[in-house]
């Protein structure tokens, strides 16, 4: 990495943190998932509509309630990790990093 571009990873990391914080504040209804039923009753499935409802409730049980919050949390972690790694890299002053 050239010495001229040393600040770029820090700016990108801070940008990721900022975008992540903004994404956690925004909760568009299009990305809000329905609340799952207590437990899908697979014995009472009689039609395609019942099967679709049971599948929807099963999937909704393990995904986040709002996808932007999960995406925002991931962006915050990525940005913080980038800033931390680059700050530690500057302290070490080693040009032999393999990443």
Short descriptors:
99 residues, mainly alpha, 3 helices
What does this structure look like?
This protein has 99 residues and is mostly helical. The chain has one domain. Helices cover 58% and strands 0% of the residues. The chain contains three helices and no strands. The chain has helices at residues 8-25, 48-60, 67-92. Helix 1 (8-25) packs antiparallel against helix 3. It is elongated, with a radius of gyration of 21 Å. It starts with 7 loop residues before the first helix and ends in a 7-residue tail after the last helix.
Strand content: under 5%
Structural class: mainly alpha
Secondary-structure element order, N to C: HHH
Please state the overall shape, judged from the principal axes of the Cα atoms: elongated
* Largest sheet report: none
- Count helical runs: 3
Strand tally is 0
Number of domains: 1
Residue windows where pLDDT falls under 50 for at least 5 positions: none
Report the helical percentage: 55-70%
Instruction: State mean pLDDT (0 to 100 scale).
Output: 80
Query: Radius of gyration in whole Å, from Cα?
Result: 21 Å
Q: End-to-end distance, in Å? A: 11 Å
